[in-house]
Design a protein that fits this description.
With 114 residues, the protein is mainly α. Helix 1 runs antiparallel to helix 2. The two termini are 24 Å apart.
Length: 114
């Protein structure tokens, strides 16, 4: 469950970063359009914006990679757990809960992975 929580937390961070980036880009676009800046100033602002976007893209890729690692670890842990249950003859229905798997309605990993 700890892995599932960490997975969910990373998914939410990734979604929040993407939403924040979209909002900031829209705001900057409005400011630049309204300001009627000189081409040299506009070029400097655009260059800085590209640097920021590259940094954010790197952060997103890092979060996606971490999400992938956590998902693999979660799946391995779940498989091991189910193997132990089977080894001792305990049906998984007796747990009282259903472990979250990739692709379940509560898991958004499948839709967020590139």
């Amino acid at each position: 469950q700890k892995t599932g929580f960490k997975n969910l937390l990373l998914e939410r961070k990734l979604a929040a970063a993407g939403d924040s980036l979209e909002k900031k880009e829209a705001q900057l676009s409005e400011v630049l359009t309204t300001a009627n800046l000189e081409p040299s100033v506009l070029g400097a602002v655009s260059k800085r914006l590209e640097e920021v976007v590259e940094t954010k893209d790197a952060s997103i890729r890092e979060l996606q990679s971490e999400l992938s690692r956590v998902t693999v670890a979660h799946n391995r842990l779940l498989a091991g757990f189910e193997a132990k249950l089977a080894e001792y003859g305990v049906p998984s229905e007796e747990l009282g809960f259903r472990p979250i798997r990739e692709g379940d309605p509560f898991s958004t990993t499948a839709s967020m992975m590139p």
